[in-house]
Amino acid sequence: MDYLTRARELHDAAIQVRRQLHQNPEVGFDLPETMKLVKSKLDEFGIAYENLADTYGVVGTLGDASKGKTLLLRADSDALPIPEKSEHDFVSQVENKAHLCGHDMHTTILLMVLKMLKENEDQLEGQIKFLFQPAEETLNGGKLMVEKGILENPKPDAGMALHMWPMSKEVNILVSRHEVLASALNFRIIIKGVGSHGAMPYMGIDPVFVASQIINGANAILARELPSNKGASLSMGMIEAPGGAVNVIPDTVIIEGTSRSLYPESAQHVSERLPEIIEHIAKAHRAEASYEVLAEVPALINTPEISDQTLAAAKEVLGDEYNVTETEPDLASEDYAHIASHLPESCYFMVGAPLPDAEGKTYPVHNPLVQFNEEALVAGSAAMAQAATNWLRDNK
Ligand SMILES: [Zn+2]
Ligand SMILES: [Zn+2]
Q1: Which of 27, 133, 250, 395 has its CA 20 to 30 A from that of 93?
Q2: Among the bound ligands, the one closest to the CA of 102
Q3: How far is the CA of 324 from the centre of ligand 1 (A)?
Q4: What is the CATH number of domain 3-180+300-394?
Q5: How many angstroms separate the alpha carbon of residue 394 from the centre of ligand 1?
Q6: What residues does Mn(2+) bind to (predicted)?
Q7: Peptide bond into 134 cis (omega under 30)
Q8: Residues annotated as binding site for Mn(2+)?
Q9: What is the Cα–Cα distance from 176 to 184, expressed in whole angstroms?
Q10: Of the bound ligands, which one is closest to the alpha carbon of residue 138?
Q11: Distances in Å between the alpha carbon of 273 and those of 7, 173, 221?
């Protein structure tokens, strides 16, 4: 089957689905309307599915397991809890929720891919397992999918997923052969001291002073304990001192932050050392500190063979229509890493989807003004369908 031609034929119908999802965003783990639409399309395509245990995740298979291996195709389907500020015909109809990470595009692309693979089912030399996943934006959805059994019955031999890249200069396919996205460790620190008058700090234990020592001290992990070619970042973007004032030392300070790295061993080191540094600095100054992990996701790392095969398949199907190039990692994070880190082989690729606004500007994902080029539905679905078909054929 010529997947590019078929994707073009499916494009108008796909745009309808994508815009319906875009106008009706849902966030987090509960995606009832989103998954209702996904299921109605799967019904229409004659593809069987079920919910993954008691979650809103939708899973199923097609093809023939006796002919070869099993490849997992995963799309995330949740929106963000922020308002959309663009002006177009199908803006979000829900207050303070919007598909600003393009997961409406991902969901639509996976539906297109499954329809094409179903039409080509007797030619598939193995089995496709699919997953429409909730709660990617919490960085905990992929983890829940693993806990609820996405890696069993059947067990996938490899995985594939994609993401929109609206800052790309054109609609294209971008594949990394190694690290793709960074790990994320999101944390909260609560420092308890003893409040006092600002003129008499010796009467209390100043948690603001301790917070400043912790912020400085924790950065020594990066500067003194990691090799400079295996770096990590550490940002404490939220600090609150409730009850504090110009002349009042409060009794509590709350800090929230995130650490990122492309290198699993560095992420692991920060994850171990951060709570130790916090505890000991607090103790050194007679304060108490608690440390809570809000979310933790590994770095997303592609394996080279399936990445080379994806590059070749995308070039094969897209020909001169869309560019396919190798790319470098980015420091955002992605909770597909919870799934990919358990798979022997995985390829996660970017689909360029720039749509400049009236002033000619494009914006990154999560920006209230970001827009996505719907041409990416064609390039993304053709590339994924071809890559999946070829991977099954070449890895029997
Ligand atoms: Zn996002
Ligand atoms: Zn995303």
Answers
A1: 133
A2: 2
A3: 23
A4: 3.40.630.10
A5: 32
A6: 101, 103, 137, 163, 366
A7: no
A8: 101, 103, 137, 163, 366
A9: 19
A10: 1
A11: 49, 38, 7
Q: Token pair of 137, please?
A: 């934006």
CATH architecture type of domain 183-297: 2-Layer Sandwich (3.30)
Q: Ligand 1 centre and the CA of 102: distance in Å?
A: 8
End-to-end CA distance of the chain: 20
Alpha-carbon distances of 260 from 42, 180, 236, rounded to whole Å? 37, 13, 12
Tens-binned pLDDT, residue by residue, of the chain (396 aa): 899 999 999 999 999 999 999 999 999 999 999 999 999 999 999 999 999 999 999 999 999 999 999 999 999 999 999 999 999 999 999 999 999 999 999 999 999 999 999 999 999 999 999 999 999 999 999 999 999 999 999 999 999 999 999 999 999 999 999 999 999 999 999 999 999 999 999 999 999 999 999 999 999 999 999 999 999 999 999 999 999 999 999 999 999 999 999 999 999 999 999 999 999 999 999 999 999 999 999 999 999 999 999 999 999 999 999 999 999 999 999 999 999 999 999 999 999 999 999 999 999 999 999 999 999 999 999 999 999 999 999 999
What are the residue ranges spanned by the domains of the chain? 3-180+300-394, 183-297
**Nearest ligand atom owner, CA of 163:** 2
How many angstroms is it from 255 CA to the middle of ligand 2? 25
- 204, 203, 207: which is closest to 192 by C-alpha? 207
Q: What is the 3-state secondary structure (H, E, C) of 249-312?
A: ECCEEEEEEEEEECCHHHHHHHHHHHHHHHHHHHHHCCCEEEEEEEEEECCEECCHHHHHHHHH
